[in-house]
What we know:
The protein is α/β, with parallel strands linked by helices. It has seven helices and eight strands; from the N terminus they run βββαβαβαβαβαβαα.
Amino acid sequence: MKPELAHIKLLLLDVDGVLxxxxxxxxxxxxxxxRFHSRDGFGLRLLMDSGIxxxxxxxxxxxxxxxxxxxxxxxxxxxGIKDKLSAFxxxxxxxxxxxxxxxxxxDDLMDLPVMTRVGxxxxxxxxxxxxxxxxxxxxxxxxxHGAVREICEHILKANGLWDAIVNKYxx
Length: 171
């Protein structure tokens, strides 16, 4: 059965292994360094500019993620979360969006509780097998290398918005 992407009003994302390639780099001073793909960020902006909300649920806290979310205008940020399902329930309460209108992208076992509750579950092509087994859509791109952009395009195309976005840049 094909997932219903045209009803999606909110895209939720894990970070490490979805928005990043999963690597964790520390500076000599102990600061965490993350690498984000610019096309993923642009895809998220296109989604938000089209009226589809974006949020983050991640187990790790980092200043780099806070800066990235601020840069992109993502205010629905739940970081340092050990119980992602509890954060998901909070998001439902805060936004009033029902689970069937939410998509979630994950890559590892701790993402499964949310993935099994949403309308559409995505995972990146290099996710663990158990997550792939429970995903409606598996990206062709790897984490941190345009997978989130691919997810954004799936949603925008299903909502009939992609051609107008492309045409805006052609005219």
